[in-house]
Amino acid sequence: MKELKILAVVVFFTLLTYWGVEPYAHSVMHPHVEGNNFQYDDLKPLKKKGNAAKGKETFMSAGCTGCHGVEAAGMPAPMDPISAAASFGVNPPDLSQAGALYDEKFLAALIKNPAHALKVEHKFVDGKQHPMPGFYGLGGDIDQEVADIVAYMKSIAKNPEEITPKEAFENACGRCHAVHYEKWTQIGEKPKFKYKKDELLFEAKVLDYQDYLTKYMGKLPPDLSMYIRSRGEHYIMTFMEDPQALLKGTAMPRVGVTPESAEKVIEYLVESGDTKHEERDSVGIIVMFYLFVFAFLAYLWKQSIWKELH
């Protein structure tokens, strides 16, 4: 009886310690946050109907191509990723698919006030300026000019349904986050090299880029190869939608993607984080079939043996 009491006390305090360390600590350090389906209710909707043709003129006049490439319109990036990161801290994205990937309210807010749209105003105080300057208009109706730019960006982008999960990830996340399992680096996919010296040169460029990125962000953003498995889909979804809601003061900007684009980013992370899941599932079916057959044969064997004994 005494031993049972001791066991009960040990079990009680073990469970109490587990609750204090795991569920309770997790609820304090990582409180549950519900998303809002990427609606961005804090941003104002566009008040004007955009004109894509005028938007192209405004886009060019505003000097956006001084930092951004638009491959879909035949405008390559003005700088390579390393030079761009040296200048801005991070490589500005190609805007070919921005109109399909990102929410139009977010795009409009981003054009006017990048730090506000990205929810990183806390990083740019005491005279510090976001590397992307805000658009103050060309002398006309600024709301109309912004709506025109957004319309232009949507006109050159693919149909959102045609955007692949890989494209969604690379555009929205891939300039800050690596995915080692997919050989993705912040400056692009690592190719196969014939000579070791060429591989080392590429890796040196990646390290240079990461140094600039670390200085800009405060720390190097994590490799996302296993994040879908270690953090889960809900965490990543809500973190994409509003990083500040989960980690107050983080340097990670709000991504601004549409719900459909967010789903594609998750799909990419699922595939890259568990590349063997289809193979494992197929093996699982074979194993279950084997166990069923083995159990059936064992039952028949048992019946045969016991029949002779009786």
Describe this protein's structure:
This protein is mainly alpha-helical and 310 residues long. A hairpin with a 2-residue loop joins strand 1 and strand 2. The chain has three domains: 1-31; 32-275, no CATH class; 276-310. The two termini are 44 Å apart. Helix 4 (81-88) runs parallel beside helix 10. Strands 1-2 form a two-stranded antiparallel sheet. It has helices spanning 2-21, 23-29, 52-61, 81-88, 98-101, 104-112, 114-118, 142-156, 165-172, 196-217, 227-230, 233-241, 243-246, 259-273, 277-309, and strands at residues 184-185, 188-189. The protein is elongated and about 100 Å long.
Jot down its keywords.
310 residues, mainly alpha
Describe the largest sheet: 2 strands, antiparallel
Overall spatial form = elongated
* Content of β-strand: under 5%
Terminal Cα separation, in Å?
44 Å
Number of domains: 3
Strand order of the largest sheet: 1-2
* Strand and helix order: HHHHHHHHHEEHHHHHH
| Oligomeric nature of the chains | single chain
Give a quick precis of the structure.
The protein is mainly α and 310 residues long.
Topology of this structure?
Blueprint: H1 2-21, H2 23-29, H3 52-61, H4 81-88, H5 98-101, H6 104-112, H7 114-118, H8 142-156, H9 165-172, E1 184-185, E2 188-189, H10 196-217, H11 227-230, H12 233-241, H13 243-246, H14 259-273, H15 277-309
Antiparallel strand pairs: 1-2
Helix pairs in contact: 1-2, 3-8, 4-10, 6-8, 9-14
